[in-house]
C-alpha cells in the first residue's frame, strides 16, 4: 500500500490517506510515515477509530516510549487509568462536563497558549498524537505553527545570536501566568527542565525555534531581557503565514512533531459543549532509524 501526503499549508502539515493506523504494522509503511513527519511536521488522518489500547499500541509501534509525566497527574487521578493517555477533555470521571470552577478545567485553559508538549521534562516530548473521540457541534479548532519556517525567516545575525541559548521550561509558569495557583507540594513536582532554543532533527536538519508558553527564562540572561526575547520570538513564530488551523472532525487523528511546531487550542463554550480527545506523546530519546 502506498500512502499519499496532500499538503494543507504552503510550508508544513499534510493529510494522509488511505490508511487505517490500527492495522499499520508494515515497517515500510511506518518508515513512510516517519519521512512524512520529518517533511511536514503535522500529519492529519481521518476516520481513525482508536480504542485507548489501540492508540497506545500504535504510538509505541510508531515512535517508541511514551511520556507519562503530565501536569494533570499532580491535580487528579487520570480517568483513563494510565498517565500515558493524556485526557484533553472537558468531562470528569462521572462523564459529566466539568463545572466552571473545577481546577482541571481552569488548568486546561492554558492549552489556549502556544506551547509544545512535555518541553518541561527531560527527555521532552517528540511526537504527540491526538485522537478526537467526541467533538462539539461548534468550532473547537487547534492551531499549529511551523517553527522551522519561522526560524528560516529570521535574519542571519539573529540566528547566530540564538544558536547557543538554552531556556528553562516550566508548566507551572505557563499556568501561573493565567492566575492558576499551585501548592508548594505541587510546584515541587513541576520543577521544569532546560532545553535548547534551537532544535534540529536527524531526518531533516532544518533548524527550528523551540518555543512554548512554558518557556520561563533564558539561561544566563537577565530575567526581564530573556522574557522579552522569548515574547518577541513567540510573536514572530505565530504570524499568520506560519499557522495552519485544524478543524476537527470526529475520529480525526493528528500527529505533530513538538520539536518543529507549536500548537494551541482555540476557545469554545466548554461549559456547554462536550469534547473528548485522548493524547499520547512519545519521549524524545534516541532510537534506531528503520
Question: What is the first-to-last residue Cα distance?
Answer: 18 Å
Give the number of helices: 9
Overall, the morphology is: globular
> What oligomeric arrangement do these chains adopt?
single chain
Number of domains: 1
CATH superfamily membership: Clavaminate synthase-like
CATH C-level category: Alpha Beta
CATH topology name, in short, is Double-stranded beta-helix
Question: How large is the share of residues in beta strands?
Answer: 25-35%
- Helix/strand-derived class? alpha+beta
The strand line-up of the biggest sheet is 1-2-3-13-5-15-4
Q: What's the main sheet like?
A: 7 strands, mixed
Kindly state the percentage of residues in helix.
25-40%
Return the average pLDDT rounded to an integer.
Answer: 93
List low-pLDDT spans. none
| Rg from Cα | 18 Å
Number of DSSP-assigned strands: 15
CATH architecture: 4-Layer Sandwich
List descriptors.
290 residues, alpha+beta, Double-stranded beta-helix, 7-stranded mixed β-sheet, 3-stranded antiparallel β-sheet, 15 strands, 26% helix, globular
Set out the fold topology:
Blueprint: E1 4-7, E2 14-17, H1 27-40, E3 42-45, H2 52-63, H3 72-75, E4 86-89, H4 103-108, E5 125-134, E6 142-146, H5 147-152, H6 156-162, E7 166-169, H7 171-176, H8 184-188, E8 193-196, E9 198-201, E10 204-209, E11 215-218, H9 223-237, E12 243-246, E13 253-257, E14 261-265, E15 276-283
Parallel strand pairs: 2-3
Antiparallel strand pairs: 1-2, 3-13, 4-15, 5-13, 5-15, 6-12, 6-14, 7-8, 7-11, 9-10
